[in-house]
Amino acid sequence: AFLHPPPGVTQRELWFMRKLSPSKDMSLKHHKGNPQKLLEMNGHTAVPHSYDYDLIVIGGGSGGLAAAKEAAKYEKKVMVLDFVTPTPLGNSWGLGGTCVNVGCIPKKLMHQAALLGQALQDSRKFGWQFPEEVKHNWMTMTESVQNYIGSLNWGYRVALREKKVTYENAYGEFVQPHTVKATNKRGVEKLYTAERFLIATGERPRYLGIPGDKEYCISSDDLFSLPYCPGKTLVVGASYVALECAGFLAGLGLDVTVMVRSILLRGFDQDMANKIGEYMEEHGIKFIREFVPIKVEQIEEGTPGRLKVTAKSTKGNEVIGGEYNTVLLAIGRDACTRKIGLDKVGVKINEKTGKIPVNDMEQTNVPYIYAIGDILQDRLELTPVAIQAGRLLVQRLYGGATTKCDYVNVPTTVFTPLEYGACGYSEENAIQKFGEENIEVYHSHFWPLEWTVPSRDNNKCYAKIICNIRDNERVIGFHVLGPNAGEVTQGFAAAIKCGLTKEQLDSTIGIHPVCAEVFTTLSVTKRSG
Amino acid sequence: TRHLHFSKFIGKPEYDLLVIGGGSGGLACAKEAAQFGRKVAVLDYVEPSPPGTKWGLGGTCVNVGCIPKKLMHQAALLGSALKDAQHYGWNIAHPVHHNWSEMAQAVQNYVKSLNWGHRIQLQDKKVKYFNVKGSFSDPHTIRGLTKGGKETILTAEKIVIATGGRPKYPIHVAGALEYGITSDDLFWLKESPGKTLVVGASYISLECAGFLTGIGLDTTVMMRSIPLRGFDQQMASLVTEYMESYGTKFLKKCIPTKVEKLESNRLQVTWKNTDSGTEETDSFDTVMWAVGRAPDTKALNLETVGVKTNSETGKIIVDAREATSVPHIYAVGDITEGRPELTPTAIAAGKLLAQRLFGQSSELMDYDNVPTTVFTPLEYGCVGLSEEKAVQCYGSDNIEVYHAYYKPLEFTVAERDATQCYMKMVCLREREQRILGLHFIGPNAGEVIQGFALGIKCGATYPQLMKTIGIHPTCAEEITKLHITKRSGLDATVTGC
């Protein structure tokens, strides 16, 4: 079926192509597609070439799916390859990627479960009466959450089918220029060719590389579908994943300890990060600081079993031990780029991080191969960013559009027990970039009205904005700690996009009584003390 | 005696500023003026409601408005949270009951702490506070009367009127005043109001009916015509539709005719159904009027000094500087004609006024694009123009409405119906597609709308909003993803991430 096999194809691969290519009649699209650039580059005469697909997307997560669906709108022939390599404990999931299966969605739902635990306590103060003892059932929650995720997985498959995007539940890796091999669960291999490729394979949790980590520890890839309550848990790491998971586990009533090597929430405003840590500590979460695990041993099997964790100080030789039912590793994530044959097609990665550098058009060093999402070097690891980047890329490729993805002033929210919303510069980055004398920081504590009656957590919620004095006090950083921080932050992010200044902030009328209104009345500067 | 008192201070009034009314606007103005080192006094007096409810310093918002209503709304939301919690794995043993007295006590205690806080703040800022009812005896002199009838005469260079409004009772409904209560009483009830009829379709009516339903009371709203007059009517319908599914009963196109007390102490209400023309009746434990609010100017003796009011509404006519027809007399807040009746606008207007009067500022209050939120069971937040107003101003050919029905993530596991979770953005159609109005129905609507209100203040356009990246997973992110126009007729239901 192949009219022009790419150069260097082995006999075996050619056989594969002929045998397994789903495109039975390639001559129909004989003149479709551009002359292959690679051939030109190699000094060959350009020949009309045809591929199985216009675009093959490797990775069916937020970014990949958005791009695939968008491309289908332009009547392109699109394929999505998605395959979830099981976790060391054997856990895997359906179509949709990290966000839907083991990220934003289950974590926010479990965070909500924890918030409801707080709501139960508050509700008594608001006149609700019910029997004293309320227990949380892990399985009820997990099953509800997993059922919802299952419906999303299914929804994605239906959406792909409706849009006539071909979906294969197979592991994609480059074997040749313009060619990927797709290996399914049963080991059946197929080869597909495409004019363009989009890599959107995302990341997976990192392991410690210590005795017992892969055997006995779990990661966020396992937690949300854990078939038993994790019990007393040690969370290793201080990333937002670590703190969010520790937060909701504690909120469900579990005994939770967080082991931190150095600082909390690296990359985020540290003033805010420390306030989050303080709040978590006050709410019963233990922190072991400046220690790293060196060994995990099983004391007893079970659901959950018992594990012994040995940890070593980062400052000296002190070694401590602790017993937990579950050890959750949340020490970082690694890009899934080392086992997808990038070397075969010459796509460069950062050897240290595994991340892929791209230009501002999401193009790799190999012109016909693009990349989006968490695997990009120096880009944000956020679902909406991946979606936006994917859509815009496709609109540029097939729709004649020129809009590039704008990675500046992207808002985000950390769903810790006290939520943290941010947009723009952290205080330390603003100081570094503009100089301390050129920025003004306005801040205020606030007490959500809803917390007054249960009289809890006074002076914990906090609002802060960072303004550039030299630019008309333009708002360059927005930070909020409090309930519904995501809902609060979103609109302000839009305003920052519109060039918000402090003066405009002051002249905006608040909505009473909500938390967000605090930003319209900020008057105290940090400088004033 | 008036002459004697006045002559004593002639040439130099005792105060630089006298504020009549210690509500949000008045207190903000007084405190701000004091910051400039001026001698300031506030007069505040709460005339008891017909059933006899009264309260402390702070005005409507603190005592019988925003604060208690949002707290009771929160009590109702927590009722929903108790139901949700079971889906999220919390095993709550039944029965679950709500105890009004406990809630009311907690809310009232908090309100009292705010009353106290306001007094302390005045003291700290050296603003003199008089718990007296003030009325003009001449353009620079206020005669204050205490509860006990003791008279105080105060003179001031400048005077700000900020006496706010009070709920109206219907006229021509027998028994209305005798047996009915208003929002001035509801929040201070010690015992549960029981089965309640709320008359009116204002936001106050719907909010109160909403939380009463939410805490488990049998609640009925009687409305003469449309809900939430002045608000976007598509949104208003969704708000009431949700309330109906939530359990609030509605008697539409009905006008009450009389209220009688039965031997059982229950109240029998008779009304006319204007649709069918029939007369209907039912009995309730409580009848609450929420048929509008009237400015509190009666006692002020405005005629004496020549402060002009609108003869129809009774509100004080002010210019852009909040000045009345009498040069040194000003007015802010709910008492002023044509201004939004909102705490934050009164506060901002009061502060800016003080800054202009004493701080060499010339900044005027901008009453455009004031955001607001209605705390009905499903909250409704908005800023800018309603769709009908935009059509009226620009013509339907010149506006584009982007809209979406969405499902809050938290509703999925809780198996809550999200039929009415909806948002729309009204934009100009030409060139830049400047945003004229934004409307959002869903949880935390106030938190969602606040930032966008700011964006709209900065002149946000539709393309700018589309360039804003969403925060996942939130409800607010759906606003940055709006892409279906009403004109297209396409399905506006959001699916998936």
Descriptive notes:
The complex is a heterodimer of chains A (529) and B (497). By secondary structure, chain A is an alpha/beta fold. In chain A, 31% of the residues lie in helices and 24% in strands. In chain A, the strands form five sheets. In chain A, strands 1, 2, 5, 6, 7, 8 and 19 form a seven-stranded mixed β-sheet that branches. A five-stranded parallel β-sheet of chain A has the order 10-17-11-12-13. The N and C termini of chain A lie far apart (75 Å). In chain B, the strands form five sheets. In chain B, strands 1, 2, 5, 6, 7, 8 and 19 form a seven-stranded mixed β-sheet that branches. In chain B, strands 10-17-11-12-13 form a five-stranded parallel β-sheet. Chain B has a five-stranded antiparallel β-sheet with strand order 20-21-24-23-22, with helices on both faces. The longest helix of chain B has 25 residues. Chain B is α/β, with parallel strands linked by helices. Chain B contains 15 helices and 24 strands. At the A-B interface, helix 5, strand 3, strand 4, helix 6 and helix 12 of A face helix 4, strand 3, strand 4, helix 5 and helix 11 of B.
Short description:
Chain A is an alpha/beta fold and 529 residues long.
What attributes characterize this protein structure?
heterodimer, A: alpha/beta, 16 helices, 31% helix, 24% strand, B: alpha/beta, five-stranded parallel sheet, 15 helices, 32% helix, globular, disordered N terminus
Helical residue percent of chain A? 25-40%
Largest interface: A-B, 87 and 83 residues
Class per helix and strand makeup of chain B? alpha/beta
Q: Main β-sheet of chain A: number of strands, strand sense, barrel status?
A: 7 strands, mixed
Give me the number of helical elements of chain B: 15
Gyration radius of chain B, rounded? 24 Å
Average the pLDDT over all residues of chain B and give the rounded result. Answer: 95
Number of strands of chain B: 24
Number of helices of chain A: 16
The largest β sheet of chain B comes out as: 7 strands, mixed
| β-strand amount of chain A | 15-25%
- What is the terminal separation of chain A in angstroms? 75 Å
Low-confidence stretches of chain A: 1-47
Which class best fits the helix and strand makeup of chain A? alpha/beta
Q: Please identify the oligomeric state.
A: heterodimer
Share of residues in strands of chain B: 15-25%
Radius of gyration of chain A, in Å, reads 26 Å
